[in-house]
Design goal:
Low-confidence stretches: none
Number of helices: 1
Largest sheet: 8 strands, antiparallel
CATH class of the largest domain: Mainly Beta
Oligomer: single chain
CATH topology of the largest domain: Pnp Oxidase, Chain A
Order of helices and strands: EEEEHEEEEEEEEEEE
């Protein structure tokens, strides 16, 4: 008689696009938890007594939720957005870059790939500078969003400021370009869950899935844990999947 089988821990979850060819399988990194909810509607037939004479099973659904701590462009694209593969390069944000106004000018450190302004504050008291088109007076500034050069009034010379802005990085990171798709378009993928405890294995394979929700929230002194919700449907052969266990 084989030993009873138990499960422990979050296990591992993989997704494989059914839309992209060839598909690059992706792993839900640092998986925190995953749930699979199998449910059906039922219909009860009653006579004159309190309890039903018969029960029929109606439509079924499988809903899944997965929380993963690793933020990965390929996972989010293949499982949720289903757009063109992420491109190399990224949009980065410089937050409160320190600078000192010199000869009415501040040139940010990433001016060669400068993209857009996100404001200036005075370093000493965090008071906000007001952006104007040209000819700044007092605590105002103008910005050339082509060159990344900020111009201030001469009364601000030698004043320490903090500049926030965006710039592009063509070598590092990945970018998903999110476009407005026609209704009905959504990536389809295969999902595989695997877990091992006490040398006993189980694998749940779901042949065709579609994600309905991607959510992430940030919190002070805590990690960001994105959550993906997805539903399961029958593949072209009418199969849902398989569940393999050792016991």
């Amino acid at each position: 008689m084989s030993a009873p089988q138990y499960g422990f821990g979050s296990g591992s979850l993989f997704g494989r696009s059914l839309t992209n060819t060839p598909a690059s399988p992706v792993r839900f990194g640092a998986l925190q938890d995953v749930s699979f909810d199998f449910s059906f509607t039922t219909k009860m037939l009653h006579g004159q007594n309190q309890f039903p004479l018969a029960i029929g099973r109606g439509t079924g659904k499988i809903t899944c939720k997965a929380k993963l701590a690793q933020i990965n462009a390929q996972v989010f694209n293949d499982i949720f957005f289903g757009l063109s593969n992420p491109t190399t390069g990224s949009v980065a944000t410089a937050i409160a870059e320190a600078a000192t106004v010199t000869a009415n000018i501040v040139t940010v450190s990433n001016n060669a790939t400068y993209l857009r302004d996100f404001g200036v504050v005075k370093a000493s008291d965090q008071s906000i500078y007001t952006r104007v088109t040209s000819g700044p007076v007092g605590q105002q500034y103008s910005c050339n969003e082509t060159t990344g050069v900020y111009t201030f009034n001469n009364t601000q010379n030698a004043v320490a400021v903090a500049v926030s802005y965006q710039y592009t990085d063509s070598s590092n990171g990945k970018t998903i370009t999110i476009t407005n798709q026609l209704l009905g378009n959504a990536p389809q993928f295969m999902a595989a869950f695997a877990a091992t405890f006490n040398n006993q294995k189980q694998t749940l394979l779901l042949n065709a899935c579609m994600s309905s929700k991607l959510m992430f929230a940030t919190k002070l002194e805590d990690f960001t844990i994105p959550e993906l919700d997805f539903d399961v449907f029958a593949d072209s052969a009418g199969n849902i999947g398989s569940w393999s266990v050792d016991n």
